[in-house]
Write a structure and sequence with these properties.
Elements lengths: L4 H19 L8 H30 L5
Helix pairs in contact: 1-2
Length: 66
């Protein structure tokens, strides 16, 4: 994976925080931690999926010259 794992984590973390801020007044405070964990997991998978698709596209555009 070309994206730095730390960068992917940081992006997923910030996205999850933003998503929690949207719904935090709609759920009980004791549910915030679980909601954040779910949002983080969704964001992380999305970022990883995007990165895999991007790498495949780059391979098709610049195939190996072996």
């Amino acid at each position: 994976m070309s994206m730095n794992r730390r960068l992917g984590h940081d992006a997923a973390f910030e996205m999850a925080k933003a998503m929690l801020n949207v719904v935090k007044n709609c759920i009980r405070e004791d549910e915030h931690r679980d909601a954040f964990s779910e949002f983080y997991a969704i964001c992380k998978v999305g970022i990883e999926s995007y990165e895999m698709q991007r790498e495949r596209m780059m391979q098709r555009l610049h195939p190996s010259k072996n």
